[in-house]
Amino acid sequence: MPHLASRVRQGVAGWPVVPRVVVEPAEKWAAFRAARAALAASGTVTLELALAGVPTVAAYKVSLLAEIVVRLHSPLKTVILANLVIGERIVPEFLQRDCRPERLADALAPLLADTPERSRQIEGFAKLDHIMAVDTAPSGKAAATVLDVARREPPRCRRQRPRAGVSRSGLSAPSAPYPFRTHPANQTAYPHDLSSL
């Protein structure tokens, strides 16, 4: 995000090893090619990293209100795009209270060496080429895949109000009023439409 570049540079200026902040797409892909592993915020970048074959740990925090809304209305078991596309949890995700430095470091460290965790991700990412049939820019294909997944997994509401003319059981109510109604006081039937008398 180019508009955050100066803020990020200021934030990391005091680090013992100052990271290179990249903004341009060509720089981003060069960084992906050089990366051994990545720590990423949840979002499209997790799918881009997976397409580039970079083992990743994903982290994300949102407000408590946003968390409650998502938990109530989302049927998804993961929020990581690569996991959604592959259909299994390949990229470890640390959300909300699990998003803590020690947990992130513990998950990221094994990805830097030749370990089963690293191999599992690389093997999982290899499935993406077939699933996504990558023949265009990964970011464009990632966006198209996100839309496809969103269409397949509509958010479910806890309770829906019935539409007009439809009862809770799903049966249609009559379009015209009943010709006779029972009077509650004497339980006798009387015509509803008096013009027919």
Main β sheet profile = 3 strands, parallel
Helix content: 40-55%
Strand order within the widest beta sheet: 1-2-3
What structural category do the secondary elements indicate?
mainly alpha
Radius of gyration: 27 Å
- Ends: how far apart? 76 Å
Order of helices and strands: HHEHEHHEHHHEE
Which outline best applies? globular
Number of strands: 5
Any low-confidence stretches, pLDDT <50, length ≥5? 166-197
How would you describe what is shown here?
Strand 4 and strand 5 form a beta hairpin. The strands form two sheets. The protein has a three-stranded parallel β-sheet, with helices on both faces. A two-stranded antiparallel sheet has the order 4-5. Helix 3 (44-51) crosses helix 8. The model is unreliable at 166-197 (pLDDT under 50). The protein is mainly alpha-helical. The protein has helices at residues 5-12, 25-34, 44-51, 64-73, 81-86, 101-108, 116-132, 138-152, and strands at residues 38-41, 56-60, 93-95, 180-182, 189-191. It contains eight helices and five strands, in the order ααβαβααβαααββ. The chain has a domain at 35-152.
In short:
With 197 residues, the chain is mainly alpha-helical. Helices cover 42% and strands 9% of the residues. The chain has a domain at 35-152.
